[in-house]
Amino acid sequence: MVPEDRREGPGADERSAQLQAAGSVREGCDTLAAQTPCGRLQSRRARIHQQINKELRMRTGAENLYRARASPQPGLPRATSNARVRETVALELSYVNSSLQLLKEELEELNCSVDTDTPDREGTTVPMIPLGLKETKELDWSTALKELISGHFGEDGASYETEIRELTNLRQAVRTPSRSESGLELLTAYYNQLCLLDARFVTPARSLGLLFQWYDSLTGVPAQQRALAFEKGSVLFNIGALHTQIGARQDRGCPTGTSRAAESFQRAAGAFKLLRQKFSRAPSPDMSPASLSMLEQLMAAQAQECVFEGLALPAPTAPRDCLAQLHLAQEAAQVAAQYELVHQALIQPPVCNYVPFSWTTLVHVKAKHFRSLAHYHAAVALCDSASAEAELLEQVFLGPLPPSEPRGLVLPQEYEERRKLGKAHLKRAILGQEEALRLHALGRALRRVDLLQAVLVQALQCSLTRYSELDLEDDFFEATEAPDIHPKTHRTLEVRAPSFSRVKVADIFHRLGPLSVFSAKNRWRLVGPVHVTRGEGGFGFTLRGDSPVLIAAVIPGGHAAAAGLQEGDYIVSVNGQPCKWWKHAEVVSQLKGVGDEGVSLQVVTLLPSTEQPSTGDRRPALRGLLRNQKECGWGTSVPVRASPRPLLGWGRKTKRDKTAGGLSPASQP
Q1: CA gap 487, 582 in Å, rounded
Q2: Are 483 and 168 in contact (CB under 8 A)?
Q3: For 302-319, what is each residue's pLDDT tens digit?
Q4: Three-state DSSP class for residue 506
Q5: Are strands 541-544 and 549-554 parallel, antiparallel or unpaired?
Q6: pTM over 0.90
């Protein structure tokens, strides 16, 4: 600010409605159909869309040329034929990407211009740096998932058309999320689904076989990888980028706006930190460790800037509140120190090779600006303070020093001496603000209304006005050099990771069975139908656990042992009714209700990782299971929620095999 002198997942019915509406516009998706026609505004939207389409065509051409240069031309050396051309094309892609980001921001601002609920800004604030979203192309999940479902899970892949369509529509909606909380929820829901897909279909030795392509947010150069982790990492990057856009759009002229903006930038920093820790082999520059570390520092600095703005908003209780000015001086010094670290990260290779020059300039200007504000508020505190507040002033200017360490500087106790020192601080503030204006003039203004220049000019005017008040006609002596302000914040901001658990999703492919057993990481053999009759002591086995129910023990010589059931088998069908998701009590109740004719069971036996599934027992039994499902009218079971545990599991091995010791108490039907 400028200084002034004063339920578990949804049930079957809900899921059915979701599947029926899979082709409709999802909440949180910003589509052309959702735009409000409004006369001239609509015409301007149409022109912007035409420009966006033109830039997209240019990007497609440059991308094709970029890929064509990947292999050397016949008869020409690779270095001469490719290196210079690829460098030129990459630069062109960077320009096109920047133009696309600006056009999309202009379109977003235009869409928000008709929103009557948007509050007017109270005063002028320093502009923030939002991050553009990564873009991607359409992806066909159908072939890969159907082949995997048929080959590994032994079920009819064509019967999962509805689920695959829902996943496709969800990804399509994620390509254009709205710049709001609903857009964040949409991205988080898709991220949770990707974690479930990773847990069910991906193994360390085998991927889905799909090629995921995303455009770099900073350079526009396309990057592609066959790992599902790249898809997850790109979505997580967009979650952080969307937080930056939401934070930059807040009205920071009121306390509520500054608080929301600070939280958004904290969430963005948490997303980039999480991405840096969990995804270390990114094929695109914007997801490299150096870039993510810089983005984390940048968002933390912008969050700290919001804290300063929140403190500068309320008017002091008294016109000459020394304590409030001291706090503002320390907070401004803290913001300046953080922006100086960000600037050092921006000018280091390889980050400096692809980060926009306007970012580097703006961060440098902000570092100078807030350093000057620290001196300005310190000068006000010096000139308006009483003798009793000298100890507080020393903490601000000198910082906390151990008692054994001698102080090299003693602050003046007399008012006249403090006035002269305050004048020296104002001189440093004026010089710093003039330097900030000079640096800003060197950068290219990206907007027609240059808010930053207005802020810098207003801050300089405040310092000059205050300096003229302290400048006496007979004051001819040279003032001492003003010391640096000790940076300190009175509100420590912590980096906040995105809250994935607050968005509950249903596993789209829950019909395949519980993830603890039915995933690509496990191999199993389907046995049955096996007919088991009841003896004097029951069926001869005990059960434990839920979804699916485990045969914990088989009595030797009993009916279950004679039928071929083994300890560790999972029951997946009772009398033709699929029971993968049944609770322990449901299976026991069903078994107790059968008569002397016995019960027909189907079970799966987990195989060691080195043993291949038996083809003789598996395929016919699976066909029978599919037929029984259709004949019995098996509906959609209760879906599971996305657990927070596997959300970031692309670099971690988790144990999913159930053991008897971790299941519910044994029951013998």
Answers
A1: 60
A2: no
A3: 999 999 998 888 654 444
A4: strand
A5: antiparallel
A6: no
